[in-house]
Amino acid sequence: MDKIDNHAIWVIKRLHAKGYKAYLAGGCVRDLLLARTPKDFDVATSATPQEVKSIFRNCRLVGRRFLLAHVFFPGGKVIETATFRANPLDEMDEEPEDLLLKRDNVFGDEEKDAYRRDLTINGLFYDPVIGKVIDHVDARADLDAKLVRTIGDPFVRFQEDPVRIVRAIKFATRLGFEIEENTMMAMRAHAADLEKCAPARLLEEFFRLLQSGYAAQAFQLCADLGVLEALMPEYANVMNHQLDDAVIAREELLIAPFANDDSRNSDEEEEASEEDVEAVVSEAAEAAERDDGDDEDFDADDPTIEIEEGMMVVSLAEEGVIESSGEGDEEDDDEEDDVDGEQVEAVAEAVEDDSETDPETEAAVAQSEENQEDAKTSEDDEVRPTPPPFRSPQERKERLIRLMTAIDQVKERGADVPSEVALAAFILPAWEALATQDLNAVQWWDKISYVWGRRLRMTRRDRERVSILLPALTRMQPQFRFGKDARQLTRRSWFRDLLLLQIVSMQAEDQDLSDIGAWKVIAEEQGRDFTQYREGERPRFRRSRRRRPPGNRGRGGRRQGGNRRRRA
Questions:
Q1: How far is CA 58 from the centre of its chain?
Q2: Exactly one of 31, 42, 193, 337 is catalytic; which is it?
Q3: DSSP code for 107
Q4: What does the pLDDT look like over 192-202, one tens digit per residue?
């Protein structure tokens, strides 16, 4: 009871007082029985979403595929409350040819709700008022045996929702459980069905695996089950290609897979706009109704960790790493870089003279910096450092697992690994393989990121940041650590992420990290902060909204509601 959130208990008691059944449900019950601290607490009830909303004034309904009630509390606390549901296929007179569930809003009782869930370990209920665990699916036996098993026939359950394949991998690696034999066979048989799922849910589960702290085991399972081939076939093609003949490789990897996309123009490109981000958040909330995270233990006594005012450095203390003083370094990723350019200097002087900063001026500075960074990146591409050693497909797969292991180690020490760094580390083995054969890795990523932006709704920020980090990683080699170029590199707003990616890359190969200390000396001389954020303390990136002209607010370029008469 001590680990149960008081807000969740209050929601349950109030639903009881109104005559409804209500229990804690899903992952939080599983974690409590495993003596783990739940990340959040979900409530399942016999009240419909509209009835829940009428009971709680601090409530909002969300979701399309799966309608949920979010009950809000001070401090950002949200208790997710779902109505008991039944499997829609069980309510049909005839079974359809395609078992994929596109809507899941058929209400039922608590037993039907338990049986329609994905895994037995997620099908438990707990009544905190009387202290009773309700188990309709024999989940306690699987918890004791440390097994991940679907509820019902796995070949049917994965056809209903193929994303359950990725979720089964996630829970197996997070909890250290084995996947039951029939469940494993069904996962392998239906991995190709992942392409049918909503892009937002797939992308959310993919990044959860990357940043779970168990990415090495997770992606080893993904490779064994064919999940990567179904989710990201363009990436899997490079990872599995022999690359013996550069001409054939260029045709098969850079031309043929993107033949239908080369005729695109800028007007046709579907960027991950504000609507895409909202779709990711909405559908991820639906997919995560029974999902919970795990707590990361931060070891303050680890010699590879240095804490400085809520931030940390992933490095070896005995290698002479320079600690940041923390004074004058409180700069975020959007802060102005020291770059050349008369326009930026003129605008900066105007900003210093004004006591209040003009938003348009800030936008001009940011745009000028971005343009000059892009120009500088293009100039940097002319330098071609020695490529990494050639790696066979098997070696590339082993390199990927070592990179994921390094990310897991960084997260284990409590550091925050942003999505763009985790994604860059994931792409790195394929990028290196193309570079060794003088194939245009930059062109390949440009094409593949466009496809992933359309198909998976990958955000523009992640794609563009990866396109900066991967080419810049070659400039972190020792021969480039001197002169003006090195100083300019440390002044980039993304240098902190680049440094973390270099640490991950070197740690994956058990290389000496003393060279990282030298880069930190250069960064400190330039007055730049190089310390890594701790988990949950990274400043949140805010996407700016574009303002529409006053007369163009509706669809079709016409103002909604017609023209209003002016008062005399």
A1: 29
A2: 42
A3: B
A4: 999 888 888 88
Question: CA 291 to CA 118: how far, in whole Å?
Answer: 11
In the chain, domain spans? 1-142, 146-231, 235-257+296-330+385-540, 337-380
3-state secondary structure of 365: helix
Amino acid at 97: E
On the 0-12 / 13-18 / 19+ scale of CB atoms within 10 A, 120 is: buried
DSSP secondary structure, 232-268, as one string: -HHHHHHHH-----HHHHIIIIIIGGGTTTTT--TTT
Residue 118 annotated as catalytic: yes
Distance CA 357, CA 114 (A): 56
User: Is 365:344 a contact under the CB 8 Å cutoff?
Assistant: yes
β-strand partners of 61 = 69
Cβ neighbourhood burial of 386 (10 Å; 0-12, 13-18, 19+): exposed
Q: What are the CA-CA distances from residue 536 to residues 197, 417, 544 (Å)?
A: 29, 10, 22
Q: Which long-range contacts (CB under 8 A, 24 or more apart) does 16-21 make?
A: 16/129, 18/47, 18/55, 20/45, 20/46, 20/47, 20/51, 21/45, 21/46, 21/84, 21/110
What are the C-alpha distances in Å from 285 to residues 66, 69, 204, 503, 524?
Answer: 9, 11, 10, 33, 41
Determine the 3-state secondary structure of 312 from DSSP. Answer: strand
Q: How many CB atoms lie within 10 A of CB 176?
A: 10
Q: What is the pLDDT of residues 95-151, one digit of tens each?
A: 544 455 555 567 889 999 999 899 999 999 999 999 999 999 999 999 999 999 999
pTM here is: 0.72
**36-73, pLDDT tens digit by residue?**
999 899 999 999 999 999 999 999 999 876 789 999 99
Compute and round to an integer the Cα radius of gyration of the chain: 26
Beta-bridged to residue 126, according to DSSP, are: 24, 133
1-142 is a CATH 3.30.230.10 domain: no
Residue 92: is it exposed, middle or buried by C-beta count within 10 angstroms (0-12/13-18/19+)? exposed
* ∠ CA 427-429-433, rounded to 5°: 120
Instruction: Give the model's pLDDT for residue 9.
Output: 95
Catalytic position from the list 40, 135, 338, 485: 40
Q: What is the pLDDT of residue 552?
A: 53
Element (H or E) spanning 44, and its range?
strand 42-45
- The structure tokens 């792409």 sit at 427
SS3 83: strand
Task: Give 286-307 as a 3 state SS string.
Answer: HHCCCCCCCCCCCCCCCCCEEE
Rounded to an integer, what distance in angstroms lies between the CA atom of residue 387 and that of residue 476? 12
Place of tokens 């905190």: 128
Match 């763009």 to its residue by tokens: 420
C-alpha distances (whole Å) from 407 to each of 266, 319, 333, 416, 503 are 35, 21, 21, 10, 9
Q: Pick the catalytic residue from 118, 193, 276, 292.
A: 118
Fold of 146-231: Hydrophobic Seed Protein (1.10.110)
- Residue with token string 């194939």: 439
